[in-house]
Each structure stands twice: as structure tokens, then as C-alpha cells.
Amino acid sequence: MEYALTATKTEARAGSYYDRIARFYELTFKINGYGRSLDAYFQTHPLPVSRGQRILDAGCGTGLLTMALLRAIRFPVSITALDLSSTSIAAARKSLYYSDGRKRDVTFTQGNLLCLPFADESLDLVVTSGALEYVPLADGLAELARVIVPGGHLLHLPVHPGIAGKFLEILFRFKSHPPKEVIGRTEHHFRIVHQYRFKPHHVIGWSKTAILAQKV
């Protein structure tokens, strides 16, 4: 009981912090071309989903990855965009409202990546970017694996250690995980399908690699 109360208080403090930085976070990643890098990746690496499947953007922030998913997927799907920060979710919902995106395909919900509000084996694809860096890696990957159907996929965009990663750690209070640990922990639950290093001229390439893995 004491652990649960402590976890709840920690989550509340974290949510409050991300509420305060949501606008700055959104501006930072809009300016730096993050969305364009995602578009380029999805053009050459189509997502492993089909019509009507269930997708989770775990740790959606202000919705840049959610919007990139909508641009990349040309058929109806069911996307849930989840984040701990209510302010970030409001910004994501606003971005979708003013875009040409398919609003009916997206549901927004506030929640914790370590305790996802989904049944076991209920999602076909989970995508996450800069989110597992806020939680213990093993616990986060185990929770994502729990909700993915056998044969379903995880697309993880980890922030790797380096100059850019260190800057983001200071700016947004998270911890980038060593690449070997990311791969090792992922392979506890998934079979890695491919890894992709973003090109240096893409801003996302300063710190990120795409890892697509399939649940075994």
C-alpha cells in the first residue's frame, strides 16, 4: 500500500512537470524537423499494420508522432494517443483538430506507460518515441509487451546517449539507455525485425535509431 501511494505521488509530480513544459516541448520538436524525419522514415519503412487494426502511441507528448502515423497510414485504423500530461494531450488534440488528419481514427487518453489501461494482448502495434527514457527500461518494455498481441509489433525510437541525448536529458529530465541494454531488454519479449539509423542530415538522426520488433 505504501509503495502504491509513493508511486501515485511520483506520477502526479511527473505529470505536473510535463504539463508545465508541454508548450516548450512542442515548439522544440516542431522547429527541429522531427516530424519531417518521421515522414521520411515511414515512406521507406511502411508500418506493419492493416485496415482497422489497433495502434497505441505510448507517450504521445504533443502529438507529433501521432500526426506522422496518420500521414503514413492511408486506411482507417484505431489509434490511441496516451500521455501522462493532460496539457500535452490537449495540445495533441488541438493539433489534430487544425490538421487534415482523420480525427475519428484517434482517441486521446491520459495514462501511465507503466500501467497501461488496456487488456492483455489487445493491441496490434505500439509506437513509442522518447518515452521509455522516463521509466525503468525493463518495466516499460514488459508492460508494452503485455498489451501487444502475439505477432504484433513494437516500433521504438530510443534516444541514444550522445551530445544530443545529453542535451535532451538535461532539458526534459529523462535518461537515455545504452544501446546494448535497449536491444537486450527488447529481445526479452520480441524478435527484432530491423534497426534503422536516421541519416545525419535528419535532425532526429542526432540521437535516434528506429527499432522494429515483433512479439514472439
Form type = globular
| CATH homologous superfamily descriptor | Vaccinia Virus protein VP39
Distance between the termini: 34 Å
Number of E strands: 7
Low-confidence stretches: 1-15
User: H/E element string?
Assistant: HHEHEHEEHEHHEE
Number of helices: 7
What's the story with the biggest beta sheet?
Answer: 7 strands, mixed
Strand content: 15-25%
Computed over alpha carbons, the radius of gyration is 16 Å
- Helix content range of the residues, please? 40-55%
Q: Kindly report the spatial arrangement of strands forming the biggest sheet.
A: 3-2-1-4-5-7-6
CATH architecture: 3-Layer(aba) Sandwich
Briefly note the CATH topology name: Rossmann fold
Strand-pairing-aware structural class: alpha/beta
Q: Kindly give the count of domains.
A: 1
Give the class-level CATH name. Alpha Beta
Calculate the mean pLDDT score and round it. 84
